[in-house]
Each structure stands twice: as structure tokens, then as C-alpha cells.
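Why do we care about 3D structure at all? Because function follows from shape, and shape follows, mostly, from sequence. That is the central idea of this module. The next example makes it concrete: a single protein chain, its amino acid sequence, and then its structure expressed as C-alpha cells.
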Amino acid sequence: MNTISNEETTPQYTYIEKLKLKDDIEKKLENKELTEILKILVENNIKLSQNYTGVLFDLKYIPNHVLDKIKNYITFCSVNRKHQLENDNLKMEYKKEL
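And the structure:
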């Protein structure tokens, strides 16, 4: 019986994809969402450093399955934010009609 490990089914991230992921973390997420990224890293025993600028980690040493979790979370946050904006716009339209 052949078994496929989690690492084999997870996409391999290129250097460019890791840079995009870094940019997304820095530019697209709010503080509470950054805290969730930190939780993902801690749950997966990723080595972290902390200084006066914040928490630091090196994407080069993070396994692909963890990067996949982070990418999925960023996508979730983006979609969620988009839906929230759409709902807020609908609310404003309804208030104007009343």
C-alpha cells in the first residue's frame, strides 16, 4: 500500500513565491491577522526571533506545508475583507433608500 506524505502533496514554493508571500504578510494583513500567522508558526515549531521592530522569521527555513497554511490564511483574509466591504456598501445603500 502506497502512502503519500503531507510534504509530497504540498506545492514547492519558489524564491519569487516566498517574496510575494512576505509582501502579502507585510502589506495585506492587520495586526490581529498577523497574530494568527504567528500562531501558525508557533504551532509548527518554527524558530522565531524578536526585537524592538517585532517578531522575525526566515521564510527560507519554513517547510512548504506551513507556507501553504500561511498562504491559505492570507487568501481567506483577503476574501473575507472583500465580502465585508461589499456588505458594508450594501448597508450604506439601504440606509440611503430609507
